[in-house]
Design brief:
Alpha-Beta Plaits; single chain; two-stranded antiparallel sheet; 7 helices; about 210 residues; 8 strands
Length: about 210
């Protein structure tokens, strides 16, 4: 019994408490061979302890699959982008470098790209992903849009992201404050921006 079509995955970064329950739970999925496919990133380690869970966003047109020379990465009919297929993956790291969200990881021990597949062994039979099941703060939520909107009245889900000139649509939704306007981030330009509280104007050409 597959998950009902109206069930979606939502990430609410502001609710992450850094407990790593999702990281440990992820490793219990049968498809992950005991390895966690989710990790926590620090928003700005120098200034805050705030973390954010990083999972595959399952893009409608996955860049990782598009750049794979061996055609090892497949997207299922229900929009889930799978881990690379072992017989075809050549461990070239193209997908790791191409993903705008920084999700795929190359497992050197297996010479295989492995990443979040939304616990496909569970969701394909009607269960919730492990990470969303154990998250105590609701930073990772799996349910209907009506449910998330009734619970997070101050936030709204989005699934369109722009990286420079590239517009990406994803299966996973990010919760953002309703009071905040839409932001377009040029990732390449951001590399030259000064960290918060620092001035790079004198050093940027050095």
């Amino acid at each position: 019994m597959p998950v009902p079509e109206n069930h979606e995955f939502f990430i609410d970064p502001g609710r992450c408490i850094g407990c790593q329950a999702c990281v440990h739970a992820c490793s219990e999925c049968d498809t992950h061979r005991g390895h966690s496919m989710i990790h926590l990133d620090f928003v700005d380690r120098a200034l805050t302890t705030q973390t954010v869970p990083v999972i595959c966003m399952h893009c409608d047109s996955p860049t990782c699959a598009e750049v794979c020379p061996a055609d090892a990465i497949k997207r299922s009919e229900d929009g889930v982008v799978q881990t690379a297929r072992k017989p075809r993956c050549i461990a070239c790291n193209n997908c790791v470098l191409a993903c705008p969200f920084g999700v795929p990881k190359m497992k050197a021990d297996f010479e295989l790209m492995m990443k979040c597949d939304m616990c496909y062994d569970r969701t394909s039979v009607g269960k919730k992903p492990m990470c969303a099941t154990v998250c105590p703060s609701g930073a990772l939520y799996f349910g209907t849009r009506d449910q998330i909107e009734s619970l997070r009245r101050a936030a709204t889900p989005i699934n369109q992201f722009r990286f420079g000139e590239q517009l990406i649509h994803t299966k996973v939704h990010m919760m953002v404050p309703k009071s905040r306007g839409r932001e377009i981030v040029d990732v390449a330009a951001a590399l030259f921006e000064a960290p918060v509280g620092q001035d790079m104007s004198l050093n940027i050409l050095q």
